[in-house]
Design brief:
Layout: H1 4-17, E1 23-25, H2 34-42, E2 46-50, H3 56-69, E3 74-79, H4 85-94, E4 99-103, H5 111-116, E5 121-125, H6 129-137, E6 142-146, E7 152-153, H7 159-170, E8 175-179, H8 185-193, E9 198-201, H9 203-206, H10 215-223, E10 229-231, E11 244-247, H11 250-268, H12 273-292, E12 302-303, H13 317-334
Parallel strand pairs: 1-2, 1-9, 2-3, 3-4, 4-5, 5-6, 6-8, 8-9
Antiparallel strand pairs: 7-11, 10-11, 11-12
The structure holds flavin mononucleotide.
Length: about 325
């Protein structure tokens, strides 16, 4: 099957990624490991390993295992606040990973340069137009703009508004991928027409047949509708917690308790703000693991975007990608 209208609009993104289609599967901690990542790349998309809280040794093994499953390009997503960020970068450089996605805030000094020593491309998240311009000046090769409809850690602005603010200004000369709330190809067609060179989806791929997520995790996704995927609430004004979108459950309530505990440690034990934020992030990593791997959908974190309502059954990655492309092509054909 060919999708000429979509392919034409994705051409710059494909050239940059080295993939057949400019559809990234956004890194999802615990979910985006060797099986899903290789399946996405094998199906012509672009898989990205979620390093999350992995040690350099674990990342080393995961990259090697993924490369053993696919000869096609894939990327690695690193969280900028990881205490061993530079060791993780060294691992990527050693494996000659072609694309590194830096998530979780402005990349620390020297990190972009360190990634580029192997000739790898750097992809950064741009939360605003001004920061997008700054990231490009600092060496980012491409940007992802991700709206608050997305699953996982989110910013405050919707995808449609970010797209309108950023694409007309940056997309002619730079590579911008759009993420957040994309569940069907008609939406992909719309963002491509606005100048995006490609898209990134997470929620839509989380329950693919090749995803190792626990059957109970997948079932929770199939049952959920858009309004079940809610953003976490910050309980202490001094503790700037990045909101996380997840299906509401007992775990969402436990997060409120965790925030109060960390806020108390800020007051009483005098821990530094950086340490407090790290504790919060470790909490998420642990809670997500409980849901994705152990299937504890009550107390674990069911990170999911608002497009979860469009995830209704387990499907192979190749079928999901083919559906998205067919929907995009049909939409562009009707124009
Ligand atoms: C379960 C889950 C875990 C995620 N973990 C990460 C992560 O570790 N790093 C990251 O940069 N983004 C993470 N994300 C965001 C995805 O990479 C992607 O950008 C997002 O899912 C796109 O929006 P969508 O969910 O509306 O498709 C996660 C999303 C989900 C649903």
């Amino acid at each position: 099957m060919t999708y000429p209208l979509t392919a034409h609009l994705m051409q710059r993104g494909c050239d940059f990624l080295g993939s057949e289609h400019a559809i990234l599967c956004g890194a999802m901690s615990w979910v985006s490991e060797r099986h899903l990542v290789s399946a996405i790349s094998e199906a012509g998309g672009f898989g990205v390993i979620a390093c999350g809280a992995m040690t350099p040794e674990l990342l080393d093994a995961e990259i090697a295992a993924t490369a053993a499953l696919t000869a096609k390009p894939f990327g690695v997503n690193l969280i900028t606040m990881h205490p061993q960020l530079f060791e993780l970068i060294e691992v990527c450089v050693r494996h000659k990973v072609g694309h590194v996605v830096l998530a979780g805030g402005i990349p620390p000094k020297g990190s972009v340069e360190a990634i580029k020593t192997s000739g790898a491309k750097v992809i950064c998240f741009a939360p605003t137009l001004a920061l997008g311009k700054k990231l490009l000046r600092s060496g980012a090769d491409a940007l992802v703009i991700e709206g608050m409809e997305a699953g996982g850690h989110i910013g405050p602005v919707s995808t449609s508004v970010l797209a309108q603010e950023i694409l007309p200004v940056l997309a002619d000369e730079h590579l911008v991928f759009v993420a957040g709330g994309i569940g069907r190809g008609e939406a992909i067609a719309g963002y491509l027409e606005m100048g995006a060179c490609g898209v990134q989806l997470g929620t839509r791929f989380a329950c693919a047949s090749e995803s190792i997520a626990h059957p109970a995790f997948k079932k929770a996704f199939f049952r959920a509708s858009a309004r079940d995927a809610v953003a976490s609430v910050q309980v202490d004004p001094r503790l700037p917690v990045i909101p996380v979108r997840a299906l509401k459950n007992k775990g969402s309530e436990l997060f409120t308790a965790k925030q109060l505990e960390v806020a108390r440690a800020l007051d009483e034990d005098g821990i530094a703000m950086g340490e407090a934020q790290l504790q919060i992030e470790h909490y998420w990593a642990g809670a997500l693991r409980r849901a994705v791997i152990d299937g504890d959908i009550e107390h674990g974190s069911l990170m999911a975007g608002q497009s979860v309502g469009m995830v209704t059954q387990e499907e192979p990655v190749a079928e999901i990608i083919a559906k998205l492309l067919a929907e995009s092509e049909a939409a562009l054909g009707r124009r």
